[in-house]
Amino acid sequence: MGSFFMDFKMKILMSTMLLWFASSALAINTKTLAFGEAYSKLFGHHNIHRSANDRHVRLLLDRSSGSGFISSDMYQYGLFSASIKLPSDYTAGVVVAFYTSNGDVFEKTHDELDFEFLGNIRGKEWRVQTNIYGNGSTSRGREERYFMPFDPTKEFHRYSILWTNETIIFYIDQTPIREVRRTEAMGGDYPSKPMSLYATIWDASNWATSGGKYKVNYKYSPFTSEFRDLSLVGCRVDPIQMLPTSSNNCTAANSDLMATGFSAMTPQKRKAMRTFRENFMSYSACYDTLRYPEKLPECEIVESEKRRFKENGHLKFHHHRRQRSSRARFPTATDRRQLVM
Predict the structure, then answer these.
(1) Of residues 37, 107, 112, 166, which has the active-site annotation?
(2) Is 143 an active-site residue?
(3) pLDDT of residue 241
(4) I need a surface site. Which of 50, 60, 181, 331 has the fewest CB within 10 A?
(5) Residue 21 within a domain
(6) What contacts 27, CB < 8 A, 6 or more positions away?
(7) Rounded average pLDDT over 256-283
(8) Residue 170's domain is classified under what CATH number?
């Protein structure tokens, strides 16, 4: 009986979160772009399908290849946003990524901000992971992982990365789920060089599901991820000179960025972020004292979060079922770059 009521309580919480997502979506204030206006194909060209109006893109993974696209320009700070629907059915080993990076330009000192959506075996929820790398700091990855509070395969949800010179905020719909504020102690670990936007789907059988225990099963392919409402707001940068392409030195771009409202962390937003994190976060580098005996400089330890995690940074319990104790290997930038070389 106790388990029934706890499950019921979780359903009420999820319903509340979904109502917040739905009502907040009305506040989106970003201009969307057609694919040809701002993006180009990256790899797996035959598995990239564009709609007739060029505003809806499908990325496929099958036995022959994954696929991905990249922004035509690099950006010095900005808001990167898309509505995404993930593959359904058995998706173990499949990773859909929506991220910014400059690894092709700064191979050893690259910056990166990631949403990585991790597939699972049938009946298990999708998870989403956020990563932050600065100046090639892959050995100090700042990963967090969350259970999805809805089925991301049934309908589109908006995922956004806000990146300014002071703060990084990850959003699901209009709910912030993670904020990293720049500190002096972070030094070069804070991403600060121009980046491109990427969207990819690929085979990550060696790590993505239970540390590689479950592989991609191509019997269920093609795996299809869908992207629409693509939005880029930021200062465009010349990829050769690494200077703004406009003469106003990003003033107008920064004004446009502030006008979206994503940078304003209101009390309501902070409350929604705390609710999300306390109920859906399943791993945080901030609470992984085995990996980081000395706290990462930007981490703000929240006691209501901390008591839910083991010393390896993983959740003690999820929906009242004990988590597996084994630690999954997190992906590196090298894993992703191997796909397009």
Answers:
(1) 112
(2) no
(3) 64
(4) 181
(5) no
(6) 174, 261
(7) 90
(8) 2.60.120.200
